[in-house]
Amino acid sequence: MADFAPILAWIDAQQPRMEALTTQWAAINSGSHNIVGLTRMADVLTDAFAILRHPVQRIALPPQNVIQSNGEFAARPLGPALFIKAHPHRTKRVLLGIHFDTVYPADSEFQKVQRGNGLELCGPGVADAKGGLAIMLIALQALEQSELAGSLGWDVLLNPDEEIGSPGSAALFLAAAQSKILGLLFEPALPDGSLVGARKGSGNFVFVVRGKAAHAGRDFHSGRSSTVALAQIIVALDQLNGRWPGATINIGRMAGGGALNIVPDLAIGRVNIRCQLPEHLPEMRRELHVIIEEINKKPGINVQLHGEFHAPPRIFDPAHATWFNRLAQCGTQLAIPIRWQDSGGACDGNRLSAGGLPTIDTLGPVGDGIHSSAERIDLTSLAERAKLTALLLLKIARGDF
Ligand SMILES: [Zn+2]
Q1: For residue 105, what is the domain's CATH number?
Q2: Residue 1 has pLDDT above 70, yes or no
Q3: Which of 65, 105, 177, 283 is deepest in the core (most CB within 10 A)?
């Protein structure tokens, strides 16, 4: 255990600081659409990451295109991203990233951060992903304080829009993935401490169905019902479940119609599709188009499909296995058992892996109850996962890997 022992002991001593940072950051509401809160998070993160002594750049993101309830597009603003490029002359480089938005909107009832039973911290985003921000910062500070500082180049990308599919930051991740050897993301580990190996891909799609309004009593037969057409689309979509192994189609939301005496002229269906294997994607896209072509044959009905697979599936290929095994070696040295399992969830790690960069994306704290008012972390996992990350970075810097 002599290997890097003083640095690892320094990280252990940072445990109270990591708890304080996580508490402070989780107390700032930064729901993906809370621009004021996201800007404030960007400010406090800029201050906190200044300790690494590399310039923190702020990058304005283009607005997100969303389809409103009237079926028309609207531009929705996004918060800023933060980017650091350290030791730019170094060709051996890693990319570290995590989001600072959460799923809790500004008016969420879940705002308070508090200690739970024993060594738990409960609060919005403590696991997903503000504890991960603290872990990343302390691990990087450990590297930069070591005698190996400067022998490994690194970029940090912190984004404000992951919980809504990274519409503005996906391109930044793909650009930052270029000429890196490894991607490290600080999403929470699974409740039993496992990391995530393979991940399903995910796509959000919106079906905008337009028909023709008419009086339901006087003129029913001249109307063209958008709700009936949407219902037919939905049934056809649901019947695709089971066609491709591991793929699922979830009809998340349907809306349409108004007064009961009007044949409705607008209906909107919002659908999430998950997919296990990249080779299924073209066929799945084709099937969606077959369904709308069929419905579009009905006179007076027009269906438009919007959306894409925003996160491709992540295959756990040999390059990923190599890096996960290296991390497990670091875990053995620290007496932290490192296991991994597959997940249906998608994150920015999907994009990095699909872009050709092997990525370990669950280096954040061990937590539970994410995306709910029961969100919490095991506080001891903060220093534990920071040591794990730091040891991996130090060994890469030293040339062990
Ligand atoms: Zn997350």
Answers
A1: 3.40.630.10
A2: no
A3: 177
Q: What are phi and psi of 81, to 5 degrees?
A: -100, 160
Residues 167 and 81 in one domain: yes
> How far is the centre of ligand 1, averaged over its atoms, from the C-alpha of 151 (Å)?
30
Ligand 1 centroid to Cα of residue 281, in Å, is 24
Are residue 376 and residue 327 in the same domain, yes or no? yes
Measure 365 CA to ligand 1 centroid, in angstroms.
11
DSSP 232-285: HHHHHHHTTTTSSTT-EEEEEEEEE--STTEE--EEEEEEEEEES-GGGHHHHH
Distance (Å) from CA 238 to ligand 1 centroid: 28
Ion ligand 1: protein residues whose beta carbon lies under 5 Å:
128-129, 187
CB 3 within 8 A of CB 333: yes
N-to-C CA span, the chain: 18
- Residue 16 CA, ligand 1 centroid: distance in Å: 23
Shared-domain flag, residues 326 and 276: no
Burial per residue of 83-119, b for 16 or more beta-carbon CB atoms within 10 angstroms, e otherwise: bbebbeeeebbbbbbbbbbbbbeeeeebeebeeeeee
Q: What's the pLDDT tens digit per position in 234-254?
A: 999 999 999 999 999 999 999
> Of 285, 311, 337, which residue is a domain's last?
311
Among candidate residues 280, 311, 342, the one where a domain is terminated: 311
288 CA distance to ligand 1 centroid (A)?
Answer: 29
Q: How far is the CA of 92 from the centre of ligand 1 (A)?
A: 27
Q: If you measure from the C-alpha of residue 100 to the centroid of ligand 1, how many angstroms do you get, rounded to a whole number?
A: 8
d(CA 166, ligand 1 centre) in Å: 11
Q: How many domains does the chain have?
A: 2
Please tell me the distance between residue 102's alpha carbon and the centre of ligand 1 in angstroms: 7
**Full residue range of the structural domain in which residue 242 is found:** 206-311
**What is the share, in percent, of the chain residues with pLDDT greater than 70?**
100
CATH of the domain at 213: 3.30.70.360
**How many angstroms is it from 127 CA to the middle of ligand 1?**
8
Question: Residue 154 corresponds to which tokens in the numbers above?
Answer: 């690194």
* Same domain, yes or no: 15 and 122: yes
Q: What is the pLDDT of residues 16-38, one digit of tens each?
A: 999 999 999 999 999 999 999 99
Residue 197 has pLDDT above 70, yes or no: yes
Tell me: pLDDT of 3 over 90. no
103 CA to centre of ligand 1 in angstroms: 9
Say if pTM beats, i.e. exceeds, 0.85: yes
